[in-house]
Amino acid sequence: MQSAGICCKLEAVLYINMEMGLHMKFLKDGSALLFLHQGERVRIEPWGQDSLRVRASMAPEFSGKDWALTEPPAPAASEIAIERMDVTWDDGTVETRELASIVNGRIKAVVNYAGVISFFKDGGLILQEYCRAYDGAISRESRCLKLVSREWKGITGGSEYTLNVKFESGKDEKIFGMGQYQQEYMDMKGCVLELAQRNSQVSIPYAVSSLGYGFLWNNPAVGRVTFGKNYYEWIARATREMDYWITAAGTPRDILFNYTAVTGRAEMFPEDLMGLWQCKLRYRTQEEVLSVARKYREEGIKLDQIVIDFFHWTVQGDWRFDETYWPDPKAMVDELHAMGVKVVVSVWPTVDRRSENFVPLLDRGLLMRTERGALQTYDYEGDCVELDAFHPEARQYIWEACKKSYYDIGVDAFWLDNTEPDLGAYDQDHYRYCDGPALSIGNLYPQMFSRAFYEPMSRLQEAPVVNLLRCGWAGSQKYGNVIWSGDIPSTFEAFYDQLQCGLNMGLAGIPWWTCDIGGFMTDDAEDPDFRQLLIRWFQFAVYSPILRMHGDRGPHNIPPLDHRGWGGGYLHTGHPNELWSYGQENYAIMRRYFDLRLSLRDYIKSLYQEAHENGSPLLRAMFYQFPEDPRCWELQDQYMFGAKYLAAPIFRLNQFQREVYLPAGCWRLTSTGEVFQGGRAVAVDAPIEYMPVFERL
Hints:
By secondary structure, the chain is an alpha+beta fold. It is built from 13 helices and 41 strands. Among the domains are: 2-263, glycosyl hydrolase (family 31) (Immunoglobulin-like, Sandwich); 348-464, no CATH class; 621-696, Golgi alpha-mannosidase II (Immunoglobulin-like, Sandwich), CATH 2.60.40.1180. The strands form 9 sheets. An 8-stranded antiparallel sheet has the order 1-2-3-4-18-15-14-12. The chain has an 8-stranded parallel sheet with strand order 30-29-28-25-21-20-19-32. The longest helix is centred in the middle third of the chain and has 16 residues, at 445-460. The relative contact order is 0.09.
């Protein structure tokens, strides 16, 4: 049979020591293949189109946790074969061992007699567990290393394990996705990635391979993945179960389709949010917000949303407006709505000891716990503890507080900031939630916090829920999350990194993504170099999912409104960050690009429709649109905005020309109307007034 032939080819003739020769037991369990070996229980089963889910545990039963795999897959009829083969040992003894295979459409898993798993697409090897042990090696390399593919190390005094899973490194393979890491690489091959959430780091453990498969590490444990040249290594620092999912498909589009079918897809994005979102650090008063909105109306610029940033409250955890500076928030919201402007307010999960909600939350066990020492998890502007977002009562508590203070007066959406959560120190072994230690489940925190708002809002309103978050995890796309890239520097280097972040977030299933135009941290908003960066960033943002102004604009020389030592009037604010804030010449450029954004509304709407229907991102790597073009797999300084527009941002100061690669076909440069034949690189002018954009004809 085919499976036996493949395995015999992989195994060849093995000369190994009998001392390690222990028998494997294979079983059929409905459509699943189950095998037991030395206390480890492994289950491989069909899970969606051309896909398999692989779980392993040292416990007698699996946990039943689906984590990111929340969408019930369509029933699939697998083909399972359990066969026998002869193995020759060093002394010439021949022993008969079992091997097994399972097929679901285009993907096939073959398990050798030692439990080492290999995956095939249409008969070709795409991924294989790494083993260098006497009993189970499927290569001619050293077996005396005693390295096994799945290594369980019990954590002393607990019921969890440190889990290490290794795979063979694919020759000439490229790895994309994995969420958002602040680095210059789009291809993750050769990278070491922390599986943990931080401010500006979004760990989404889903990878897309150039070999034609997608791989989800379906485990929210803190850990690490290394995509090395010698092998790939996934590490969970504390877990009870291995869980990964793999799919095989012909194109990146098909791979993402299969992935989002089992993890969920974004809702249809509201048409009235496709324009400008206005924000800065920080509007300090009710009148300041209204004056900005009125000015936009006077300028004839349709503002879709205005965002009220942090410390509009008194202390963290009060989750209400500071009445000193926001005396009538309902009247403010009503006036903004009359102008056609939606209102977003910032909510943090941090609770100050001085907050009116601290003691009630503490008494009910609804705050994050520490494993040792003082009960403090965050120390910005107060002695704070984060909400335990895994606790259903905690999620209900914060929603009821925010509903009363914000939603019931007409606030449209929430900016869920610090939702990694941000921690005073990222010592993940120090924190615990009601569902377990942060080491084992911590990466799921931003998604659980977002659900505190998404689920009740979905019940209360007909319009899709759209909330802004600083972090997420696998499957967050279906909880109404617009994820932005965090508190990034205002540099051209950081700007370049954001393109890699946005492209890889899209490949990880997150189509609603944005970043602070111009970066977050600016020392001097009047610096001509910064203003050039701002224009280049704004041009890029027009051809991105969300057009959003935000940033902390220095110098920080604006005096506080009061000296209470707490609250909205006390905390610093940045300089203005509206379109007209950077001189008339720059305003004219941004105004022209804003008008361009409006002209693209129908097209952008169609892209959001695609994201909703099949999971396609708006911001697309070149190979996503042109997988048959080898050159496109190498490009990371240009991208496709949907299928129609090729955008080539400017990533260097005083750069006014650049080279752009055009795939095969006919392309029109939108700034001049000049038409080019593709299949080659062309040099084009890029004056400050224009970013090179080509329309596919």
